[in-house]
From TrEMBL, chains A, B, C, D:
<keyword id="KW-0521">NADP</keyword>
<comment type="pathway">
    <text>Metabolic intermediate biosynthesis; chorismate biosynthesis; chorismate from D-erythrose 4-phosphate and phosphoenolpyruvate: step 7/7.</text>
</comment>
<feature type="binding site">
    <location>
        <begin position="125"/>
        <end position="127"/>
    </location>
    <ligand>
        <name>FMN</name>
    </ligand>
</feature>
<dbReference type="GO" id="GO:0009073">
    <property type="term" value="P:aromatic amino acid family biosynthetic process"/>
</dbReference>
<dbReference type="GO" id="GO:0010181">
    <property type="term" value="F:FMN binding"/>
</dbReference>
<protein>
    <recommendedName>
        <fullName>Chorismate synthase</fullName>
        <ecNumber>4.2.3.5</ecNumber>
    </recommendedName>
</protein>
<dbReference type="InterPro" id="IPR020541">
    <property type="entry name" value="Chorismate_synthase_CS"/>
</dbReference>
<dbReference type="GO" id="GO:0009423">
    <property type="term" value="P:chorismate biosynthetic process"/>
</dbReference>
<comment type="similarity">
    <text>Belongs to the chorismate synthase family.</text>
</comment>
<feature type="binding site">
    <location>
        <position position="283"/>
    </location>
    <ligand>
        <name>FMN</name>
    </ligand>
</feature>
<keyword id="KW-0028">Amino-acid biosynthesis</keyword>
<dbReference type="GO" id="GO:0005829">
    <property type="term" value="C:cytosol"/>
</dbReference>
<feature type="binding site">
    <location>
        <position position="48"/>
    </location>
    <ligand>
        <name>NADP(+)</name>
    </ligand>
</feature>
<keyword id="KW-0288">FMN</keyword>
<comment type="function">
    <text>This reaction introduces a second double bond into the aromatic ring system.</text>
</comment>
<feature type="binding site">
    <location>
        <begin position="298"/>
        <end position="302"/>
    </location>
    <ligand>
        <name>FMN</name>
    </ligand>
</feature>
<dbReference type="GO" id="GO:0004107">
    <property type="term" value="F:chorismate synthase activity"/>
</dbReference>
Length: 356, 356, 356, 356
């Protein structure tokens, strides 16, 4: 079916389900000759992996990517780069009880409504396991950006009601805490809160913020593929995302033009803005300032509480709580947000080459 | 350049600038034989038109669409439907003073940075006049939806700090006020506020909410073209949009799963949800409930105040306020939001036909 | 409907019918700042125009292109370049007699079968008038190639049984005869033959050959967008084309490998082939030699003889000969073949920029 | 890089090289619920396999497809169908002698020129092994066509100078000979000829003809995706193809309109043509008659004779003959031609569903 390709030139076509043979993709647009730094790619995958601390699910998926084509002697050859991450933890019959159930706020019912058939094992294609392919493609996008100096950093800026109001200048502490919040005090509070939510057998949502530094002016293709519109689609396509905003976002809606406009000035011959309420994008094209956006995640639908729902035949049933559960997936979403952002930036960059 | 096509099957390729010959597009995917109700299309265009009341700009653009191909005897023939809306009000030398200026928070600088050349007259391609083509395509999308019963209604839910918290059941009053807010008391307050902003020579942002009723379950194409992701891209591609959320959106980020999940039940053999926090979309596919989303608009960058900025050569200058100005474009954005939504729904609908 | 866009980066979306408002298109991928040499574009259009001599139809269409967007001060701005050529000679009621007839070997019946509705006036979208948009886009592609030195030259190599066996080195005489054959003696014979066919009230087919000189090695994108595969699609999409071959084409099928292989050698440090049976493309990628291909055109279906056919209701009827008629369109196809080739080359060139 | 996706709705993105991990693809557009008849898919793969007789290469690749996603309980689920055929016979160092050589009329030089890097092992991506992915996708396309009655049959109509002039009504004998020619006497002659060519250590070209029966009127999308134009691209993208023609093809170029036109008549209320010189396609849309086309293959470039060529550094060298060799690949191309045709027909069919 449609919908499994992202990008125009740097283009990922993804496949895979939670409990089939694996997940993976075919990536086009990788620069021929690019060194595929496998340690870096694995490191990015590890960042997404659950089981890293008490606040995440204890599964240890040990995801390892295998490249199936497009590589020779560790370098991209310019032909399509296919890769797979094989599923290991495939106890399909764990899911037999869910076969005919529509779990609340999951995609069980909608997949059935759309396709008339559904892989119920672990959510099938709707499982967040699908995002592994994005992380691999994003890691390669980051490798392509290496020589450009563009830096893409995402972090958790909100968990439940706990939120950071500003993007700090110093983002170095992000990876030092399992919650991936650069404000270490806030990080402690978030961790405690998530632990409490786990004990409540509940889940909680949050926000991932992302900063892109050193991106040149000129990225983005109006009118339908404005930089922020494509970033928006990219982020909204991630599991559990409910909203996207860039710059001041929804806050801008209550502001006046005189408060929101960014004055231009010049510094060392370069056009800059004194403020960056626009979030680094004006008219859908990057302006050389920091690109800033925020992504809202709902609380994951899987909770360890009984819930009322219906089965495939329409019978109302009580779904018993069981199994594993990740009370807050937002920290694990950080590398996925970065991966999608990296793909968008590389694709816009490559498109710009065709104008020269 | 890239970026001027939207949709996969119901597909608009758009063209045009504020001060060229006109704006328009080529539309593919229109059902052969469809009656092109010209009165309806004109009515949609009129809704977008400025000059309708004291709260909008006094220009009277009298936009009329001319179909250039794909129509015979008032019916679509199945060949590409090209159309144009000719520019009338083209005093290009009005803009000579802006030729070398980069207006704050406009796209002047970024277009120059990207293309190395820029049509400075009235913003060129970055003018909101471009959205006329979207309204025409959206009107035709609505005509295609007519027989399906799907109803798409957008309205202003926030202007500055004035906001409606809930989507009312009764939306019938929307078009009765120039501010397009269904709560008539709130509408009065908004109008007064916009008038005040006009007197301040300032501008103000706002939010457009949209409700899609009677859409079937099954629309949307995971994983990258999830219904809400494509709606998000569509909305974010509209001029001045800074954010998009569906269902509870950013609010969901501070909630628990037990508060956010929508329980399923059955009614007359149909699977329904007791609440609709998901906003009608689960796993990227419509679930048959109302589809709800919100779009954040920044205050327009044009204000009647002097502003500091730079010119093309990097000199810092004061930009003198002059000309016409629309203090709040959000009411005029309502038909544009509906148009983009209609295009997304029709395209998803047509894609589904290929699965049967 | 689908099918009206050609190209990936240098991308034409075309519209228009024989008897609607006009034909035209939207072109993306034009280099910002490119001088749009209007004299050159008009000259290319004139080459396609009928009425240039006794061997073509006497209509004088005086096609003039009007640019609707994407141009300022004669230069491309990088935004979509929309253009139209307005229809002038629109005596629609000339065609009333054809309204319900299915003309033999025209597209009347198939358009009806596909769309359930048909613009019968002059063939509607299936009219060769559609190719005007291709010539405009091709002219702009040629302007983009100017600085590269790539030279694309097509010519008539066969009319009926009269054929040239070899591609001559000297192609300078092509435009000096109305039949566009570089061998002036053969040209005379072709002209006489076409005149004879005209007197017989019949039509005749032919072949257009094309030589692309100075193209670099490296153009073309295996495996599905091999250079010759895309050239093939491009040529086969032109009205009345029945076949495409490159290099030795169908002749290669009866040869042995030892006869067909092109030996490599080096000259001044450049890898070259001693023979060019491959036609300048190996493995779907240009090798730096001359790119050679041939395009087979059937005799046009319109002849001034009575023919048996059926009408829309299935009644068998005799279609009376009447109207104007072009006994051999192959000479007029020469600029169209060049235009499509230029578009393919530019698009492959731009794609290559993304690998660097 | 670009160029690895074929189709719009029924869409194959392919990957893989001769000596990497394997070849495969991701297929979208497969009807959810379709039974994936594995025996049939394997049978199609076996038809492509070398080593079936004395006239083909003795390798026994035993290609088996493994589905990686999109299947549950033997049925397509509507999510992307990824598959791989693992490479077994990977003696990479067999190819060390070719590492720096540019084999005449292979893609070695052009891949190097394009990508600056090349997988020299067995031709890498330019190996005909890539076509395995097409055969799998084509087999699934055939399964989708099963209920429609459309029948796609290709066969060898020419080997070297030995050619069949007409398409016989009875095609039942095709698979009974290793050369896949329905005329059993001609088949014997072809086999003897190919054996002679093998002894000469040479190779020989040929032609594959294809007949599509029971296709409905209405398939194909003018103007750029005319049915025959897409078939042409599909066929030309197959390794070693040099030409494509449909209907009378190049022969039509020497005919008169009065000889070439197909008269319409009605039979049992159905519009038909008395002759089928058009090859079942008029104006780029199928007309309900048999679709007929021919595909020209050059002799394969690998021969067991010494050849002059150059190496990467530009030195002229003699390439010593060695290794395995298939004197005539045309019989093995038969299932590939059918596969590509099936993909084109299914894709056109699915596109038509969106017009209804």
């Amino acid at each position: 079916m449609a919908g499994n390709t992202f990008g125009r030139i740097f283009k990922l076509t993804s496949f895979g389900e939670s409990h089939g043979r694996g997940v993976g993709g075919i990536l086009e647009g990788v620069k021929p000759g690019l060194e595929l730094d496998m340690d870096f790619i694995q490191q990015e995958l590890d960042r997404r992996r659950p089981g890293q601390s008490k606040i995440t699910t204890p599964r240890d998926e040990k995801d390892r990517v295998e490249f199936l084509s497009g590589v020779m002697d560790g370098k991209a050859t310019g032909t399509p780069l296919a890769f797979a991450i094989w599923n290991k933890d495939q106890k399909s019959n764990d899911y037999d009880n869910l076969k005919d159930l529509y779990r609340p706020s999951h995609a069980d019912y909608t997949y059935d409504a759309k396709y008339g058939i559904r892989d119920h094992r672990g959510g099938g294609r709707s499982s967040a396991r699908e995002t592994i392919a994005r992380v691999v493609a994003g890691a390669i996008a980051k490798l392509m950006l290496k020589e450009t100096g563009v830096d893409i950093t995402a972090f958790v800026s909100q968990v439940g009601e706990l939120r950071m109001e500003e993007v700090p200048e110093d983002l170095s502490a992000i990876e030092s805490t399992p919650v991936r919040c650069p404000d270490t005090k806030m990080a402690e509070r978030m961790i405690d809160y998530i632990d409490k939510i786990r004990q409540e057998k509940d889940s909680v949502g949050g926000v991932v913020s992302c900063v892109i530094r050193n991106a040149p002016a000129g990225l983005g293709d109006p009118v339908f593929e404005k930089l922020h519109a494509v970033l928006g689609q990219a982020m909204l396509s991630i599991n559990a995302v409910k909203g996207f905003e860039y710059g001041l976002g929804f806050k801008a809606s209550s502001m006046k033009g005189s408060q929101h406009n960014d004055e231009f000035y010049t510094e060392a011959g370069k056009v800059k803005t004194r403020t960056n309420r626009s979030g680094g994008v004006q008219g859908g094209i990057s302006n050389g300032e920091e690109i800033l956006f925020r992504v809202a995640f709902k609380p994951v639908a899987t909770i360890l509480k009984d819930q009322n729902t219906v089965d495939k035949s329409g019978n109302e049933v009580v779904m018993k709580a069981r199994g594993r559960h990740d009370p807050c997936v937002v920290p694990r979403a950080v590398p996925i947000v970065e991966a999608m952002a990296a793909m968008v930036i590389v694709d816009a960059w490559l498109m710009n080459k065709t104008y020269q």
